[in-house]
Every structure is written in C-alpha cells, then in structure tokens.
Amino acid sequence: MSEQSKPGSIVHVEIPTNNPARTKKFYGEVFGWTFQDLPEVKYTLFSAPSGPAGGLREPLSTAENRPLNYILVNSVEDATKKIRKAGGKILRGKDEVMGQGWWALFEDPTGTVNAVWENNPKALQDQAERRP
What we know:
Elements: E1 10-16, H1 20-31, E2 34-38, E3 43-47, E4 53-57, E5 68-72, H2 76-85, E6 89-97, E7 101-107, E8 113-119, H3 121-130
Parallel strand pairs: 1-4, 5-8
Antiparallel strand pairs: 1-5, 2-3, 3-4, 6-7, 7-8
C-alpha cells in the first residue's frame, strides 16, 4: 500500500487463485511481476512495474471469485458511512491487517464489490525509517 497515493486511489489489487504457483508463473512470465510468499497467512504479495501492488489469495466464495480493488481512504469509519449513505452495502466491517492498516469490504449500488483501505500511520513511518 503506497504512502504517496492520494485518497480515492486504488492502492492494492487482490487476485483470487486456486493455484498460486501457476498464477505466479503466468504473471511473472507475461508481465514481469515479482512475488513474495507469506506462508504464515497463506498469502502472496506481488509487485508490478508501476503499481499498484497486490496479492494472490484463495477465492472468498464462488460469487467473489474475481479481483478485488482496495481504495485508499483517510478513515474506514467515515468511508463506510458515506458508502451506506450513497446506497452501498458494507459486506465486512472494519478489520485490521497485521499492523499495516484497516479495511472493510463493500458493494456499490450496482453490485460491484471493492474494499476501502486506511493506512496505519505508524506502519508507514516504520517503512520510511527502514529505507536507505
């Protein structure tokens, strides 16, 4: 999740896969993506040449076996209120991701599913301090 992105930007994309090895091989060969496995959480991060970055995950369900975009917001709470007010539905409330930030899953009025993402400022600061 990029700290330079502005609210409203897509900052992370998840691709569902039942075969991570085959998916990594395909996207690596075709597009030059690189991958980092996180076996403790059964997740694989990927980096594309100019972003956004993303991950490979097991499909959530048959209905949600499609890519999931994460849209940067300043506050998940504020965003979920706006989503409801604009006619969307919250499918999964605010949840933390390993100290990196918070997310919530929503459906827009036309049925498209996406997520909102709020960075944890401490995680961003820690990442900036580790850069050379």
